[in-house]
Structure formats: C-alpha cells, structure tokens
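Reply to dn_fold:

You asked what the input looked like. This is it:
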Amino acid sequence: MTFLAPNVTCANCILRVRYESHKPGEHRFYQCADISISAASGPAAPTSNAVLHGIAFTELDWTASRSEYVEVDVTTGAINVLAAIPFAVRTSGPSDMPYAEAKSVNSPFILDQIEAHDRATFTRYYLASSTGPIGAAPDRLLSISPVPGQAGYDIRLKPLPNFAFPPNSIDFRPSTNQLIFLSIETYNATLGTYKLRIGSLDPVSGSSSTLVYSDPDDTFVNSQWTALDAQNDIFYLLMGNENAPDSLETRLYTVDLVKGAITKITSPDFSKYTISSIYFYKGKLYTLSPGLVGDATIWTLVTIDAVSGAVTPVSVIAPADLFVNYYGGAVFGFDDVNGILYYQFVVADQQTSTIATISLDTGKVTFSGQSVMRHVHNLAL
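and this is what came back:
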C-alpha cells in the first residue's frame, strides 16, 4: 500500500486505513497500525500563500445561465466564492444530453479551458458567447478584475472581432499588453487539412491581427497547451495527434512573436512519458506526466527539449496509483519568479482532488487538503 505522510518526525503515530466495499455483502471497515515517521532530509518542501482562481459551474444543470468566480486555497483546498457571473461554462452538452439538443440551447456561456492573466493589473480574461448556442464562436471578451480600494470585482464584456474559427487558447503578452491567441482553421475541407493561426488581440479595442500561419497539416490538429517566454517573446504550442488517442503523440511549435515566424517544429519523445501541458521556466519547458496510458500512474516532473524533443525526468511527484491518470489537472499560469508550479490531482477511488505545490528548482512537493473541484473550470494562478 502506498500513502502520503507529512514531512515531520513522529516516533509514535497511528495509521488508520478505511476499506471501501466493492462486492455485495461486504461492508466498510477500518484497520489501524502503530507507525513511526522520519522527516525527509534535503531541500525543504515548497510553501505558498497563493490562491488559484477559476469559474465554478455545475454541468448537472445545463439550463443554468450563471456561474461563480471562485478562489481555491493551495494549502487547505477550500473553495471560496468571490463573485457571481451571468454566464454558464460549456464546451458541449452534458453526457446524457444529445448534442443536437445541446446546440439549440441559446444560453450565454464561457469557453472552458481558455484563460489569460494580466498580472500587472490583476485582470483575468475569458472568451464568451453572449447568446449561444453551444458550438458558436465566441463574440465577447470577458474580463474580471478587483475594484481598487474596494471589495468586489469589476466584470466587463467587450465585443470580439468576427472569428471565422474560434480561438483555442489565449495568453497575455506583457511586452505589448496584447492577448496572443491560437486558432485552428480549416484549409482544405476535402483533404481534412488545417492551418494554425497565431494572432494578436487587443483587449481594449477588440481588434485582432495575424502574426503567422503554419503550413497545412491533417494530423497534429488538437490543441493541447501553450506557453510563453515573456522575456524573449517566444511562444510555444503543443499540438496533439488526433489519430493517436492512446500513445498521445504530440508536436511542439516554437514561434518568434517579434519576427512573426515559426522557428522550430519538433516531436517530443512519447516512448516513456505522455504530456498534455507545458510551462516555460529558466530556459526550459516543464510539465507533469503520468507515464504511459495503461501503465501504473506514476506522476513525474519532466523537462521537454524544444530543439531535440527529448523528455527527461526530473523527480517523481507521486508514487504509483495514488492519483488517477487524469490529464485535465494542469493549471493555467505558474509562479515564474519563485519557480512554483501548481497542479490539480484527482485522488484514486475518490471524488476529491488536491492541489500540488511543486518547486521546479528542487522537485519537492506539498499537497493541499482534499476537496471536490470537478465543477471548477479554467483553474489558474
């Protein structure tokens, strides 16, 4: 049995284990054991007083047209409601609702898995549709920022340009105070080829422009994640192979935003570690990987070489089968000053999640208290 213990010295502790019944006639029972714990040596585990932010919305009520702006404590796991938002959060209808029916629901919604943060003004940006239906391109830019010197939040909607193909991601670019967006646009419908469009969106005026297009491609057309080297204005795109649902093969694009050019395309090594997110820190790309699909889920901090595609393990974050093989736990943004990465893990055999606080410099990790977070979308630092 594998379990996490606090990093403290305890000569006489009691471990209590709960067994959940899985067969008819069985009952839940507990077992106890006397144990001792020795504090680990080496660098101290990271601590943080940061909070994550997200949009809470329950998909059980798909007719709802409101959600809540919330914060999540990275130490306790507690979720605190900050403000109400007159939008739902959707990418499609719930699993028990026909998609054709979901498309007919004319309800405002915020796009899931798209968020950008201007840390200088504490403003967060989301893409939204003011009318629906589900599947419609976003027509509004939703911004949320604290009111200076007062309690409460300033929530604003601004019109977006008419996107023929809706953006798949947005990132805030500090050097220009613009939003960098990625959209996947049909190039040849008959051949099934697409182009990646990297563009710039002004959050004040709502105007947009194209920085660069990729060559047409019919394979790596699933947007996974983006990362920005803000100091050098280098943008990284991680795209997934839509024909590799098990191996999760990816392609990494390196984009020079100043030159408006794709300078490198590489294929990360997926023979040992599958990846679905990337973070830039001190000249390297980092992420967390559960290993391979179907293997024992050992979560590992790895680096990705943007030139060679080599994926190198840094440290084991969680031992086998402590957390499920869930690729949706990546958090938008990270503490690039102190090298602290946050990640949401779903606890095995439970409905709860925990937030990991990971030092990219030491590989050390701490975990928050557990809470139900499945209803919190666009979780971000």
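The chain has one domain: 10-380.
Hope that clears it up.
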